[in-house]
Design brief:
The complex is a heterotrimer of chains A (337), B (263) and C (379). Chain A is α/β, with parallel strands linked by helices and 337 residues long. Chain A contains 9 helices and 18 strands. In chain A, strand 14, helix 5 and strand 15 form a beta-alpha-beta unit. In chain A, helix 5 runs parallel beside helix 9 (320-336). With 263 residues, chain B is α/β, with parallel strands linked by helices. Chain B has one domain (5-222): HUPs (Rossmann fold, 3-Layer(aba) Sandwich), CATH 3.40.50. In chain B, 26% of the residues lie in helices and 30% in strands. Chain B is globular, with a radius of gyration of 22 Å. Chain C is an alpha+beta fold and 379 residues long. Chain C has helices spanning 7-34, 39-47, 66-79, 81-101, 104-116, 231-267, 279-307, 313-338, 349-357, 366-377; strands at residues 121-124, 140-144, 147-158, 165-171, 181-187, 193-198, 209-220, 224-225, 269-270, 273-274. In chain C, helix 4 (81-101) runs antiparallel to helix 6, helix 6 (231-267) runs parallel beside helix 8 and helix 7 (279-307) packs antiparallel against helix 8. The two termini of chain C are 27 Å apart. The chains are: A alpha/beta (337), B alpha/beta (263), C alpha+beta (379). Chains B and C meet through helix 2 and helix 5 of B and helix 1 of C. Strand 18 (314-317) of chain A pairs parallel with strand 15 (240-242) of chain B, so a sheet runs across the interface.
């Protein structure tokens, strides 16, 4: 592997059912910054079937170029289909950096691709930067269940690959003047049906009322201290009055009080809402990992010494069953004015 | 499947990171006294293998790459009901990242018969979820990650794969690698009778010479990623603590929300 | 002298600890309040081979040793005294009897299901007029051709209302005193057998403690254990083993109480300091710790002796006497350390204190243990 042969920053443009995933745009945002530092091109890699409009969108959100593999066989994600196309592309075009969103797709695809290419992959990065001394990518991620932060380098192998969770970076502002068909390299990949060894029988979506907590501006989150399922009713009321959404720590999911799609934390989702209200949550490291970059954190807990109280911008010591109804009443009153 | 199914489960012994604490004085991890356990997702993988063994008849082999003390995790797996255990351990593996690890385990697997390879989705110490797919691509077999249900229908498997917003039913023919998530099942406890039998069984110990993997792919030399530095997280600075009766506390909070234009 | 648990024993201890925390602890308070026998947990324990730990594999057991079984009772008792005694009464006072004294036929018919946990066992010795004076049996068994006819009542029988297999003692020859007592296996379905009163108790409230009523109960001849007249010896030998189980239960209860108290003391603050910072309370904790450790080694030694075919009657008496006293002392102190909160049902220590008391009474009161010990020392 001759490092010097590898140039350019690539971003995997994850799309599902013809819709670009938020994380792809966020990675373009960060990719732009990295590409600028390295003084190289930022390329989005798009796989799908008849998704030309997405190629344009990728340019509008910061890509210098789009490589677009168009095939009916790539319409829906399959490990064999996607990894073959990407491995072939990387082998041919040799990017030095490759970012993939750490979605269920990315975490299935990234390691397979990296392992085949014999290069390094760093998962769930929370920070990415360039080392000015040698232009290596510095990839920072939580380790040891979130108790440590580690900065990883992949000095002697290329491409340097990272997966990043949705909500960690920010997408750029849309600039449609950047759209131009010359920047799009569309092609039909070398792929046959027999290359794909799995057969999809059915795809089922959850009921729509499960909100994507990653999208909410205000999150009202409940933990073990809520005590039971009924306790979440008052949290839902608070979320409603704030136009926000409820979520919970791992304990609330394990007790069966709320759906797992609402879990915040190391093994759940990372959220960065404007306001995060932690009710009856102790603030174990695994939970903090999922929300501590929220703009404003309010904690409500009986225990003044709970870890969350040290992290909150505003920590209210007391019984949530008394404080939350008061909050609801007072906010309602304010909104009526 | 007419012949007996061969299932190989890859497990890792990990410190129970839920029990790890930070030393408040030095800001470093306190590692002593932290119990070692079978990685939780791996236990789900093992449980599923045992369920399939009970339903369809299968030979369940458990393998692990680790230091000598990882033998305890393999014994636990035997006590849960696995048939054979192999520990692959060698100084040459020191410093392995996920790529090097996947090469070692693939090396072991090439010497075994397998229809299904089960692994946990990710380990609670590394949290990468990379080794499973790495093994699959080295062996050039299909993979399905985030598995929450498995059924055997003759010579095919019907697998339910979890998505963030739902699930997908997939049909696949062995050999295949599956990675398990906690929703797959509830792992059983060790059986007391098995506990007494397992220590009469042998845990096979393999080393680097037992697998045909290029030396350059092992250990530190075979690890493209290196840790440049590690640090304990800097927690946000402390904000305000308010310890007042509910009404006043709520009132103060509302004033803060207004002040910051959150409402 | 090796004070280290074997690898197997370590595994059993860890496995039961995990089981206790996940399955037993969450319902311990509820079953105490409602006096509900935790059958679902007993079934789970059967599934993982816990109901016949020291019974050989060919008789449906786990093929383990007595110390492993004792560790299991201890771990269960740390979170629930009731669950601990369910296991020890079943194993030591029923399964072990048939294993030690039964015929091959009795082992095949009764021991295998007991050891597998398919059936539950109980031990019927105590009568309204025969408690500490166990020899004062008034139940009678009369041989009539191919069966015995049993008449009498037993009281305070642990697992009484839920057991399938009962080890029952009755007089076959009144004129011979203790040498006229015989031992029988009674199946709950035998004609003439019924369950009477369910006791409403201070502690181990979810344990099913009942009266057994025998009204012309028909017991097949082949259900006689050992020979006629050997019953009392069987009972006494069995109680020696059972005492180790009770001692383990007491030890576990004490350990559970101390653990709860220690956790509480680290969190609870008064005068701006955690309770753990006050020397008077630290000293209480030190005393509790030392007594628990002393009890531990008396208990383990009794089990060790039994495993190594050494005599253990004296060791069992010492262990039960001491561990029971320690359990009472430690649980009472634990409630004290919790203060007012410890007196309420929000916290488990009041239950542990109530559970501890019985260990000074059943399977030979502390006074009986002292008789045994003094008898040995002064002989």
């Amino acid at each position: 592997m001759n490092i010097a042969d590898y140039k350019g920053v690539w971003v995997f443009a994850e799309q599902r059912q013809g819709e670009l995933q938020k994380v792809a745009l966020e990675l373009l945002g960060k990719g732009r910054e990295i590409a600028n530092k390295l003084e190289v091109e930022l390329t989005a890699v798009l796989l799908g079937s008849k998704v030309d409009d997405l190629a344009n969108k990728l340019l509008a959100f910061g890509a210098d170029k789009v490589i677009y593999a168009d095939s009916e066989l790539l319409k829906n994600y399959s490990t064999d289909g996607y990894s073959k196309v990407i491995i072939d592309l990387v082998t041919e075009k040799k990017p030095e950096v490759f970012f993939i969103g750490a979605s269920f797709i990315g975490r299935d695809l990234g390691p397979r691709v990296a392992s085949k290419l014999g290069t390094g992959l760093t998962a769930d990065c929370t920070a990415l930067d360039i080392d000015p001394e040698n232009n290596n990518l510095l990839m920072t991620r939580p380790a040891f269940g979130g108790n440590l932060m580690a900065t990883i380098v992949c000095a002697k192998h290329r491409p340097q690959m990272s997966t990043v969770r949705p909500g960690v970076f920010e997408k750029l502002a849309k600039d449609e003047t950047k759209i131009s068909s010359e920047k799009i390299e569309k092609f039909v990949p070398v792929l046959q049906a027999s290359d794909i060894r799995t057969k999809t029988l059915e795809i089922v979506k959850h009921a729509k009322d499960i909100v994507d907590i990653g999208e909410a501006d205000i999150v009202v989150s409940g933990g073990r201290g809520i005590g039971n399922k009924e306790g979440f009713k008052v949290l839902q009321e608070l979320a409603d009055v704030l136009d926000g959404t409820i979520a919970g720590s791992r304990a609330s999911i394990e007790y069966g009080w709320i759906d797992k799609a609402l879990q915040v934390g190391q093994t759940g989702k990372t959220v960065r809402p404007v306001v995060y209200i932690a009710v009856g949550i102790s603030g174990a490291i695994q939970h903090l990992a999922g929300m501590q970059d929220s703009d404003y954190i309010i904690a409500i807990n009986k225990d003044e010494g709970a870890a969350i109280m040290k992290v909150a911008d505003l920590a209210l010591v007391g019984d949530y069953t008394k404080i939350v109804p008061e909050l609801i009443a007072q906010i309602k009153a304010y909104k009526l004015l | 499947m007419n012949k007996v199914m061969n299932i190989v489960v890859c497990i890792k012994q990990v410190p129970d990171t839920n029990e790890v604490k930070i030393d408040p004085k030095t800001g470093t991890l306190i590692r002593e006294g932290v119990p070692s356990i079978i990685n939780p997702d791996d236990k789900n993988a093992l449980e599923e293998a045992l369920v399939l063994k009970e339903k369809h008849g299968a030979n369940v082999t458990v393998i692990s790459m680790g230091p000598p003390q990882a033998e305890k995790a393999l014994r636990e797996a035997l006590a849960m009901g696995a048939d054979e255990a192999i520990l692959i351990s060698d100084r040459a593996f020191a410093g392995s990242d996920t790529l090097a690890t996947s090469h070692v385990l693939a090396g072991v697997l090439r010497k075994l018969d397998y229809d299904i390879i089960f692994a946990g989705r990710q380990a609670i110490d590394g949290d990468t979820a990379q080794v499973g797919p790495g093994i699959a691509v080295h062996l050039d077999i299909p993979q399905i990650t985030y598995v929450e249900k498995v059924e055997v229908n003759g010579d095919t498997l019907t697998v339910r794969k979890a998505w963030e917003d739902g699930y997908e039913i997939i049909e696949v023919k062995p050999p295949v690698l599956l990675t398990a998530i906690k929703e797959l099942n509830e792992p059983r406890y060790m059986n007391v009778k098995n506990i007494f039998e397992t220590f009469k069984k042998e845990v096979k110990i393999w080393s680097a010479k037992d697998i045909d993997v290029d030396k350059d792919l092992l250990g530190l030399a075979g690890s493209p990623t290196q840790v440049k530095k590690s640090m304990t997280k800097e927690l946000k600075g402390q904000g305000e603590i308010v310890n007042k009766p509910a009404k006043e506390a709520a009132s103060y909070a509302v004033s803060k929300l207004k002040e910051n234009h959150f409402i | 002298m090796d004070f280290i648990l074997s690898k197997e024993q370590q595994f059993v201890k860890e496995m039961v600890r995990e089981f206790a925390l996940k399955e037993v602890k969450p319902i311990a308070a509820e079953i105490d309040q409602t006096e509900r026998f935790p059958m679902e947990n007993v079934k789970k324990m059967a599934k993982i081979g816990m109901m016949g730990i020291p019974i050989p594999v060919e008789y449906g057991g786990a093929g383990g040793d007595n110390l492993s079984y004792i560790l299991a009772v201890e771990e269960l008792s740390k979170v629930c005294g009731t669950t601990g005694v369910i296991l020890s009464a079943h194993t030591s006072l029923c399964a072990a009897v048939i294993h030690q004294f039964g015929t091959e036929q009795q082992k095949q018919k009764y021991l295998i299901p007991l050891a597998k946990g398919d059936t539950l066992g109980a031990f019927g010795l105590t009568e309204p007029n025969a408690g500490t004076d166990a020899a004062g049996q008034q139940s009678i068994a009369v041989l009539n051709g191919d069966h015995y006819v049993l008449n009498g009542t037993k009281i305070f029988i642990t697992n009484g209302g839920v057991a399938d297999t009962f080890i029952v003692f009755a007089m076959t020859d009144r004129s011979k005193g203790t040498k006229g007592i015989s031992c029988f296996i009674v199946d709950k379905n035998f004609k003439g057998f019924s369950i009477g009163k369910h006791e409403d108790k201070l502690g181990i409230r979810a344990s099913s403690t009942t009266e057994l009523i025998f009204e012309d109960c028909i017991v097949p001849k082949e259900n006689l254990v050992g020979q006629e007249g050997r019953g009392f010896g069987i009972a006494m030998k069995t109680l020696d083993g059972g005492r180790i189980g009770v001692a383990a239960q007491a030890l576990g209860i004490a350990e559970g109480a101390l653990e709860e108290a220690v956790n509480y003391m680290k969190e609870r603050k008064q005068f701006n300091k955690p309770l753990s910072a006050f020397q008077g309370l630290q000293w209480m904790v030190a005393e509790m710790d030392v007594k628990i450790e002393a009890a531990r080694y008396l208990v383990y030694l009794a089990a060790y002796n039994k495993d190594h075919n050494l005599s253990y009657s004296l060791e069992a008496a010492r262990a039960k006497l001491f561990a029971a006293e320690v359990a009472m002392e430690v649980t009472t102190k634990a409630v004290q350390l919790f203060g007012g909160y410890g007196y309420t049902k929000d916290y488990p220590v009041e239950r542990m204190m109530r559970d501890a008391k019985i260990t000074e009474i059943y399977e030979g009161t502390s006074q009986v243990q002292k008789m045994v010990i003094a008898g040995s020392v002064l002989k």
